[in-house]
């Protein structure tokens, strides 16, 4: 007993010295979770012509944030061996042994239980279970299986990352609604050009780690064509909220400008590519989604202030 405790404390000692709260923070993929939360917030606001109830707003944001962060932490643990092989990810806390896999799992479990309880007690059980399905979709189905199995990994797995607007909507109404599904469809269609632009730039990383991402299995040119076609599809999908009367002219103008910008980058990537074009396209994808959801919000409150 004494011996095993000594071994345990030695193990901890080898991890503890360099560990700070920043390592745990990094495990949660904070910038990704922030954008996910923006899409959830917009889902909440668009679900009602009134202001969102403060309890639902706060508990919804914290609960969805905790479960999304838990999913991100599990992704770091499951992927630490492949992360070690890639220039973009070799410095992550689990790879660098700043946080041990077992501590990371305890952290993820704490976040997940906390997030679920907050949603179930102060929001509703529909939202709590749908958010758990997002966690299972990303941390288990995408990370453990799809990522290593098929170049369509991020298309199918993208559904988990696209679900937050629906979570926001059900948090407010406790009901599924076709308008919420349209928001999910927008993020779902946005995900392939978002990720493949980065994967084109990082194709050597994925080759080294033997992950069957599209540019590895089908080549960079095919992936550029796929980015362009998905960007065209995104432009069409983004028209749907206006065409079904869910949004007004502010959204139509804003989304058209944003999609024209995305199309410009995707076109350049395919037909006039420079060294920096892939990463510029990836960077623009993030600005695109962020501004698109802010525009949805402005359009919504403008409609009800008239
Ligand atoms: C299966 C779906 C997705 C895949 C495979 C994917 C992949 C990636 C990758 C590989 C990165 C680079 C991370 C790094 O810098 O190390 C990234 C960054 C990012 N992603 Fe995604 N993503 C997906 C979905 C989403 C969704 C749904 C959102 C938000 C709504 C999102 C928001 C972001 C943001 C904000 C960043 C920048 C993070 C930073 O600079 O630290 N992603 N994504
Ligand atoms: C509850 C809920 C909505 C959960 C979804 C949460 C979530 C964090 C989705 C983000 C998607 C994402 C960053 C994928 C990249 O993973 P990767 O492993 O391909 O990228 P990496 O190599 O940078 O780790």
From TrEMBL:
Its main location: membrane. The chain crosses the membrane at residues 57-78, 104-122, 128-146, 153-172, 178-201, 222-243, 249-267, 279-298. Belongs to the UbiA prenyltransferase family. Protoheme IX farnesyltransferase subfamily. Carbon 2 of the heme B porphyrin ring is defined according to the Fischer nomenclature. HAMAP family: CyoE_CtaB. NCBIfam families: cyoE_ctaB (TIGR01473), PRK04375.1-2 (NF003349). This is Protoheme IX farnesyltransferase. The lineage of its organism: Bacteria, Pseudomonadati, Pseudomonadota, Gammaproteobacteria, Alteromonadales. The gene is cyoE.
């Amino acid at each position: 007993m004494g011996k095993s405790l000594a071994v345990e404390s030695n193990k901890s000692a080898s991890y503890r010295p360099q560990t700070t709260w920043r390592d745990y923070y990094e495990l949660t993929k904070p910038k990704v979770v922030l954008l996910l939360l923006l899409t959830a917030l917009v889902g909440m606001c668009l679900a009602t012509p009134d202001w969102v109830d403060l309890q639902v707003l706060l508990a919804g944001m914290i609960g969805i944030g905790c479960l999304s962060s838990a999913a991100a932490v599990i992704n770091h643990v499951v992927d630490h061996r492949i992360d070690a092989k890639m220039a973009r990810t070799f410095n992550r806390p689990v790879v660098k042994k700043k946080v041990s896999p077992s501590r990371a799992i305890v952290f993820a479990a704490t976040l997940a239980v906390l997030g679920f309880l907050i949603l179930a007690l102060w929001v509703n059980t529909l939202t709590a279970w749908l958010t758990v399905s997002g966690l299972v979709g990303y941390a288990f189905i995408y990370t453990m299986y799809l990522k290593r199995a098929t170049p369509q990994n991020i298309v199918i797995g993208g559904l988990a990352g696209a679900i937050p607007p629906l979570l926001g909507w059900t948090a407010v109404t406790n009901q599924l609604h076709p308008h919420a599904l349209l928001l999910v469809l927008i993020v779902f269609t946005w995900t392939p050009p978002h990720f493949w632009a980065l994967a084109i730039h990082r194709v050597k990383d994925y080759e080294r780690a033997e992950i069957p991402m599209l540019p590895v299995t089908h080549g960079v040119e095919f992936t550029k064509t796929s980015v362009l076609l998905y960007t065209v599809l995104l432009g069409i999908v983004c028209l749907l909220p206006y065409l079904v009367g869910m949004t007004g002219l502010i959204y139509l103008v804003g989304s058209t400008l944003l999609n024209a910008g995305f199309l410009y980058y995707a076109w350049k990537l395919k037909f006039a590519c420079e060294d920096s074009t892939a990463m510029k396209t990836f960077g623009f994808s993030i600005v695109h989604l962020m501004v698109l959801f802010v525009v949805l919000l402005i359009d919504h409150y403008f409609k009800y202030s008239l």
